[in-house]
Amino acid sequence: MLEVEGLRVRFRRMGSLRARLQGVGDPYVDAVLGVSLQVGEATTFALVGESGSGKTTLGRAIIGLVEAHEGSVRFEGAELLGLSDRAYRPHRRAIAMMFQDPVASLSPRLTVRALVSEPFRIHGLGARDLGAEALRLLEMVGLSADLLERYPHELSGGQARRVGTARALALSPKLIIADEPTAGLDVSVQGEILNLFARLQDRLGIGYLVITHNLPVVRRVSDRVAIMYLGRLVEQGPTAAVFARPAHPYTLALLAATPKPDPALRRAEVELKGEIPSLANRPKACEFHTRCPFAQVRCRAEAPTLREVAKDHLAACHFPFPTA
Question: Strand locations in 88-174, DSSP E?
Fold first, then answer.
């Protein structure tokens, strides 16, 4: 359904005059660099990485909220990059985005009724019975009609997330890009939201691209997972395979740092060295070698490529861990 190939997103870090005065030939940073992935119908693809890894920028580039400088984004075979606003409009109905902050992403000046019915007005579908549509959408996400006249500040975090979900569902999308869908929610509420996502997928056949750093969420909801570091994908594959036998040291470190709800299990420590490098000063060769506890001479001299280390399991590492 969604095919992303070689996507690159750049941001200017200084003005032209300052760059010339300082002798900087390339005053840009690459927030997303050479990313390729696919999301199938009625499946969930999870994108994982530390803060600043480029996950949200990738999601925004896919839906056209930030400009992509290179690559391809195809949705159901149609190329999206380079389309005019007019040509992009039909695809905006088929792809929806849920933003990270469930309350801040809702206009404080609009009631729940206006928020969930706004997409119909924006896309010229205001002739529908918007009151009935609002009720239908709230019912789909498990909210009662007495919330229709409330404002976002009168909602709990879980209610606000459900309203955001209802708003995303308004135009019957085929794909939802969900940025940290459980951020800031209690554990019990997180479970309710994830169950809601699963029910909607079973009922409507929706595909999800879930952007998160919450690995337990990834394990529970996703069919495939990709690990992102400094704007690149360093590992990708079926979720069960990546969690059972991670091939990249970065993935291993992320999994080792995940708390386990069994006091009898001691957490395996994989220490990462130093801080995440600046995007403006990327390490040479393997960009992870400055933090990798397993780095060797080749890692400092040659950049690895994302290659298959097992069936449908890819890793960008010269010395991947065994996957069988």
Answer: 95-98
